[in-house]
């Protein structure tokens, strides 16, 4: 009984070391864990039913498992074939394709599960009969840009604060403006989908780290909501 427990504990430790290695070395795994944390937090905030939460857990688990398998395949191929080889490329491409399929499944699950809570939230927060003009919206976007520039120049010196991404700030600001003024929720979701695609493209090109992109998106959405709320109260 003791030997069995020791073997189980050793196996658990090895598995934990594998997850820790993937988190320490793989950028995509860090991204998946951050997104999973935000999605689960949103699920608790929206008070989703048990069935929806199970689907979210399934999508998150599948996403992380395929990324772990992809990492294992990549390291095994690198060990067996250090030089470039067509078969090694095929093995890595197929492993990466499994991650892509699971990511697509996770996105579809998220759109289906969160559509009704998001639709309800947007219907309650939309601005009705707003006198805000197109010029005001451009001034609002300029305010977002100035906010990011001020944070970069005044508070990001000497590594004190992560420098926010200007492109993600503008993208999520525009998506927020569209979300507040359109009457159809699907249009708002498409606007945020385009903003998220910009986020992913910048992350994939390694122009900015994930915290900088996330901070930019947060600033763009928060400044836009705050400014429009103030204008609506006038």
Describe the protein's architecture and organization.
With 234 residues, the protein is mainly alpha-helical. The chain is built from eight helices and no strands. The chain has helices at 2-25, 27-46, 50-80, 86-125, 134-155, 166-181, 185-204, 210-233. The longest helix is centred in the middle third of the chain and has 40 residues, at 86-125. The radius of gyration is 22 Å and the shape is globular. The model has no long low-confidence stretch (mean pLDDT 83). This is Diacylglycerol kinase. The chain crosses the membrane at residues 29-47, 53-73, 94-115, 135-155, 167-200, 212-231.
Q: What string gives the helices and strands in order?
A: HHHHHHHH
Overall structural class, as computed from helix and strand content, comes to mainly alpha
Overall geometry: globular
Number of helices: 8
How many DSSP E strands?
0
> Which segments are poorly predicted (pLDDT under 50) over 5 or more consecutive residues?
none
Subcellular location: Cell membrane
GO molecular function: kinase activity
Transmembrane segments: 29-47, 53-73, 94-115, 135-155, 167-200, 212-231
InterPro entries: DAGK (IPR000829), DAGK_sf (IPR036945), UDPK (IPR033717)
């Amino acid at each position: 009984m003791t030997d069995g427990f020791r073997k189980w504990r050793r196996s658990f430790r090895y598995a934990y070391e594998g997850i820790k290695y993937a988190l320490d070395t793989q950028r995509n795994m860090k991204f998946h864990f951050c997104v999973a944390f935000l999605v689960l937090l949103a699920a608790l905030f929206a008070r989703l039913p048990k069935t929806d939460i199970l689907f979210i857990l399934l999508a998150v688990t599948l996403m992380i498992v395929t990324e772990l398998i992809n990492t294992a395949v990549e390291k095994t191929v690198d060990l067996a074939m250090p030089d470039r080889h067509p078969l090694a490329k095929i093995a890595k491409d197929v492993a990466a394709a499994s991650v892509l399929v699971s990511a697509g499944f996770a996105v579809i699950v998220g759109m289906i599960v969160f559509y009704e809570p998001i639709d309800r939230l947007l219907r309650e927060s939309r601005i009705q009969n707003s006198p805000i003009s197109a010029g005001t919206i451009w001034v609002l976007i300029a305010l977002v840009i100035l906010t990011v520039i001020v944070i970069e120049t005044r508070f990001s010196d000497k590594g004190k604060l992560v420098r926010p991404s200007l492109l993600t700030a503008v993208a999520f600001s525009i998506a927020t403006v569209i979300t507040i003024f359109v009457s159809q929720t699907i249009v708002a979701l498409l606007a945020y989908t385009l903003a998220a695609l910009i986020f992913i493209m910048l992350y994939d090109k390694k122009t900015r780290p994930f915290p900088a992109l996330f901070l930019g998106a947060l600033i763009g959405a928060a400044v836009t909501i705050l400014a429009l709320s103030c204008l609506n109260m006038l």
